[in-house]
């Protein structure tokens, strides 16, 4: 999409590595500085996923013209609502916003207007949309991405980590400007604005009723008594992880839970013979794990979990041909049409129209297939206006053609 250029390494922030803001006085000075700045505000957040329980932010980075770069410790400064108010009228620039917005909301930072450079890259048809790749492809600068999976709860944070964090927002506004121009030139700017607004309007996901059912490998567990063991072990692990502020997988791997459910160990010796229980944290809680297995074994039948829970949507597509062959044909036709349109507009199919909307539309289509009825249904399913404009007529035409053929 862009002409070949010499790639230059981006090694140091322009004004050097700023000190970490970790007290009320420094935060107040930063609020004043960013309030006096101009233009969009680049924002990023670093979490400790895989290390700590939950997805809270352990470092928040911001940059704005006239204000420079700020690195804020949200553990010492957990309320950024003052900073939020100071830049309330500014456009906030994020990369992969849906990842950072939840932890920013936790500290009181809530963008009103946003530009997501990753989402913009998807709409523009870039094959790789990671921040480092986008900066290199669009701006000709190379970012060092070596600390993206680090434990950002570490204190004090090493200098090279802080350098990496500052560089993540160093040219984010410049990247935004370049992508904004490309969106405008390609006629996709309004599409992007609708997408950004939709991301901001999406409410946080509701807690799952049975979160333990997302245990990796649970599909191997075929009987309800063994499922009860998964549930009890998962619940015990979650409690220990929360109390210890550790990622659940560091307390006990999913593989250990599934293996214990399949083997049903009755003694500590049998439990220790399961290789996934040999980690230091797992060994520390052997009595808890054994008690959880025993509780599952002792449950009366009427308290055992159901083999599966009914979802609120269609069944998995691989079952459609058996359950409703006509629906399977509609899904295939709609998917083919969306794929063709996505190729024409140079973007991934899932960005042209959400796969869940395609499934729900074709599983329970309107009683009468028309442009208007398909448009209305897509809007009900959360499609944006630009998506409805591009897809409703072609999908309606494809589905109507199927109906005519089946008459």
From TrEMBL:
User: Which residue intervals make up region (Disordered)?
Assistant: 301-321
A GO biological process held by the record: nucleobase-containing compound metabolic process
GO terms assigned for molecular function: 3'-5' exonuclease activity; nucleic acid binding; nucleotide binding
Which superkingdom, per the lineage? Bacteria
Q: Which Pfam families match?
A: DNA_pol_A_exo1, DNA_pol_A_exoN, HRDC
HRDC domain segment(s): 223-303
InterPro entries the record matches: 3'-5'_exonuclease_dom (IPR002562), Exo_C (IPR041605), HRDC-like_sf (IPR010997), HRDC_dom (IPR002121), HRDC_dom_sf (IPR044876), RNase_D-like (IPR051086), RNaseH-like_sf (IPR012337), RNaseH_sf (IPR036397)
Q: Which CDD domains does the record match to this protein?
A: RNaseD_exo
Q: Any stretches that span the bilayer, and where are they?
A: none
Return the protein name: Ribonuclease D
């Amino acid at each position: 999409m862009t002409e070949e250029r010499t790639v230059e390494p981006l090694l140091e922030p322009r004004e050097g590595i700023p000190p970490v803001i970790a007290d009320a006085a420094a935060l107040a000075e930063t609020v004043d500085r960013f309030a006096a700045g101009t233009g969009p505000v680049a924002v990023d957040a670093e979490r400790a996923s895989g290390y700590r329980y939950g997805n809270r932010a352990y470092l928040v980075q911001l940059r704005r013209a006239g204000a420079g770069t700020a690195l804020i410790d949200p553990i010492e400064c957990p309320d950024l609502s003052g900073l939020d108010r100071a830049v309330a009228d500014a456009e906030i620039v994020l990369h992969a916003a849906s990842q950072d917005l939840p932890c920013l909301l936790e500290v009181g930072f809530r963008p009103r207007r946003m530009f997501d450079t990753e989402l913009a890259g998807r709409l523009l048809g870039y094959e790789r949309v990671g921040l480092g790749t986008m900066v290199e492809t669009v701006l000709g600068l190379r970012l060092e991405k070596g600390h993206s999976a680090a434990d950002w709860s570490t204190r004090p944070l090493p200098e090279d980590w802080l350098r990496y964090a500052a560089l993540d927002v160093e040219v984010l506004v410049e990247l935004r400007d370049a992508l904004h121009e490309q969106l405008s030139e390609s006629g996709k700017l309004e599409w992007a604005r609708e997408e950004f607004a939709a991301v901001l309007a999406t409410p946080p996901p509701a807690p799952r009723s049975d979160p333990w059912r997302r245990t990796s490998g649970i599909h191997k567990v075929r009987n309800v008594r063994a499922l009860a063991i998964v549930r009890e072990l998962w619940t015990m692990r979650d409690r220990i992880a929360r109390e210890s502020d550790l990622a659940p997988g560091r307390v006990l791997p999913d593989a250990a839970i599934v293996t214990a459910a399949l083997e049903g160990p009755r003694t500590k010796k049998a439990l220790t013979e399961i290789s996934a229980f040999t980690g230091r944290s797992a060994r520390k809680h052997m009595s808890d794990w054994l008690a959880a297995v025993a509780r599952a074994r002792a449950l009366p039948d009427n308290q055992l979990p159901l083999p599966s829970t009914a979802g609120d949507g269609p069944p998995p597509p691989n079952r459609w041909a058996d359950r409703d062959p006509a629906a399977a044909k509609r899904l295939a036709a709609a998917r083919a049409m969306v794929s063709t349109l996505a190729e024409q507009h140079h973007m991934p199919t899932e960005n042209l129209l959400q796969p869940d909307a395609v499934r729900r539309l074709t599983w329970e289509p309107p009683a009468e297939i028309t442009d208007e009825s398909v448009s209305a249904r897509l809007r009900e399913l959360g499609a944006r206006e630009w998506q409805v404009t591009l897809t409703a007529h072609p999908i309606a035409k494809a589905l109507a053609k199927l109906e005519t053929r089946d008459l």
